[in-house]
Write a structure and sequence with these properties.
The protein is an alpha/beta fold. It is built from twelve helices and 16 strands. About 45% of the residues are buried.
């Protein structure tokens, strides 16, 4: 799948320049089978969706800071009118997917990823596999029981469609997308959404997942997977968890998604910052970290934002404020922040902040969020479908010049070989850098 990200880039460019849907004139995929996801809606459901679309048409421009910065107001209204006219021909899932597409077009999948329709995982049926895009290939990195033999395989096709075609279509639907980095993360998640894949015509039903893969031995095989309705997303398999560098077993866990641990022999502390707590909880965590820095005479600090998709960035500043007076830290060379494609929104903002106020060196891959663009989301719920629509309230300029993601000071790409072996190459670079200074 070496052309996947070329395809993504071309499609996102077309969206930004022309505003074209890129689909056939009908605006939705052919109907491959007859069930609740592809049978046209009842008159009552059509009326309810019409009310939702009119509510969307009214509320989104009223609330957004600058809705028509990419898609013009006439284009926006033309699209709403087209969807209203097509409602009697669409299934409920097809109109939902069409709304994802329209909402992403507002930002072109680029500078306004906070304007989106949220795809709650509990709403859909999921494939028994978890995917990730690594080195431009779609890999299977998690599996429900019974499918473990597929771990590590490369996806070649879904149904009769090449994986490049599927990725290109999904790239126009993904929520929270601002560049190719966040597109890769979001596409890999949406690839397991069987309801969406069925509405798009890629799979025969929302509980069937025909897939062709190249396994670890290089053998190509086509499988017909069947799941129960409402199946959940599998977790990333522990086979791929970090094995190197080994930071030791001791952890001071404030929560499962926010914790720190000392790294023996390096006078260092590693902070796993995956989720934002409440401001009071962050103050308590910052004090725990500050107390540890004092007690251990810590010189080096590593803050890991790679699995943090956002929250309240001003809460993240409280962590910086809580440790800024710790004189044992080497404030010239000893602060590092790990970033990557999942680093988004507030986490992207705090990565920039920490580089500015903590003199942190950013290590890893470019962030999934852009430092100049529309941010700070709020939202509303459509009255009948219950879909949550988020929108941007502010325009942020976190650096002088726009860039496609926040660029790391030290670029350490994620390779499949490292991922497969559990090698955290970016963290290993930091450990080596600390050792070289010690």
């Amino acid at each position: 799948m070496k052309q996947t990200f070329v395809v993504i880039g071309v499609f996102l460019s077309l969206l930004f320049v022309s505003g074209c849907d890129g689909d056939a004139a009908s605006g939705h995929a052919p109907v491959p089978s007859q069930d609740l996801h592809t049978i046209p809606m009842s008159p009552g459901a059509v009326d309810r969706w019409a009310e939702d679309l009119e509510y969307y048409r009214t509320e989104l421009p009223r609330r957004h800071i600058d809705l028509f910065h990419n898609l013009t107001e006439p284009e926006f209204n033309t699209e709403i009118d087209r969807l209203l006219n097509e409602l009697p021909e669409l299934s409920e899932m097809q109109i939902e997917v069409a709304l994802w597409r329209l909402t992403q077009r507002i930002g072109g999948g680029a500078e306004d990823g906070h304007t989106t329709v949220y795809n709650s995982s509990s709403r859909y049926t999921w494939a028994p596999l978890r995917f990730d895009i690594i080195e431009n290939e779609v890999r299977i990195v998690g599996a429900h029981e019974g499918h473990e033999a597929l771990l590590g395989a490369t996806v070649v096709a879904v149904g009769e469609n090449t994986i490049d075609d599927v990725v290109a279509t999904l790239s126009k639907l993904t929520p929270y997308t601002e560049n190719s980095q966040s597109a890769a993360f979001r596409i890999s998640r949406l690839l397991g959404n069987l309801d969406a894949l069925h509405a798009l015509g890629f799979v025969p039903s929302p509980v069937e997942f025909p897939i062709t893969v190249t396994d670890r031995t290089g053998s190509k095989q086509t499988l017909q997977l069947v799941v129960q309705s409402g199946a959940s997303v599998p977790a990333r398999d522990e086979e791929f968890e970090r094995k190197f560098p080994d930071l030791g077993a001791s952890q001071a866990k404030f929560s499962e998604r926010l914790w720190f641990q000392p790294i023996e022999g390096l006078q260092a502390a590693y902070v796993s910052f995956e989720r934002y707590p409440s401001p009071p909880d962050m103050d308590r965590f910052a004090k725990q970290l500050a107390d540890h820095i004092d007690a251990a005479n810590t010189r080096n600090l590593i803050i890991d934002f790679r699995e943090n998709a956002g929250g309240n960035g001003f809460t993240g500043l409280r962590l910086a404020a809580g440790i800024l007076n710790k004189d044992s830290i080497d404030w010239r060379n000893g602060v590092y922040v790990l970033i990557g494609k999942t680093t988004y929104s507030a986490a992207m903002m705090n990565a920039v902040n920490y580089r500015q106020i903590l003199n942190a060196k950013l290590v890893g891959e470019p962030t999934g969020g852009n430092p100049v663009g529309y941010q700070d989301a709020d939202g509303f719920t459509l009255p009948n479908s219950g879909l949550f629509v988020s929108y941007s309230k502010r325009l942020f300029r976190l650096q002088d010049e726009p860039s496609v993601g926040v660029q790391p000071d030290v670029l350490v790409p994620v390779t499949w070989e490292d991922y497969r072996q559990g090698t955290d190459a970016a963290l290993a670079w930091i450990v080596d850098d600390i050792r070289s200074r010690n």
